[in-house]
Amino acid sequence: MSLLKRIFHKKAAPGSYAFRLERAKELHGQAVKYVTEHVDGNEDVVGRGGALCLKDTEFIIDTSGERLMVIDVSELDASYLMSGDGVIVKGPNKLEGGRMRTVTVHFVYYRK
User: How far apart are CA 92 and CA 76, in angstroms?
Assistant: First the structure.
């Protein structure tokens, strides 16, 4: 994004489709170290390796050589961890018939 766009760019309202699409575009192509899910008081690792992808209007989490989640951008809720090392993704998983699922995706660290 150019400097002028950064200065004069109006931020989308949180919860709006534009905000969710912008967040999905930020996460597109991010390399995944591992994915965890909080189940019955335990933090279980559900996948290692992979990437986050935005395809048309679907946000996809690929890990361990398979698709873990597919969520419509209009229903995606993604928020960064305070450390910036990952993101919490929440939404109805189309692969499981729309079951609501929340996972924590930890990124691969790349020195910049």
Answer: 8
Among residues 12, 44, 34, the alpha carbon closest in space to that of 25 is found at: 12
Query: CA-to-CA distance for 101 and 88, rounded, in angstroms?
Result: 11
The pTM (predicted TM-score) of the whole model is 0.86
How far is the first Cα of the chain from the last one, in angstroms, to the nearest whole number? 18
List, for residues 7-41, the tens digit of each pLDDT value: 777 777 888 999 999 999 999 999 999 999 998 98
Distance from C-alpha of 34 to C-alpha of 57, rounded to nearest angstrom = 24
Q: Identify the residue whose tokens are 């398979």.
A: 66
CA 13, distance to chain mean position in Å, is 18
Distances (CA, A) of 18 to 12, 15, 78, 111: 6, 8, 13, 30
Q: What's the rounded Cα separation, in Å, for the pair 93 and 46?
A: 14
Q: Which two tokens stand for residue 60?
A: 């996809």
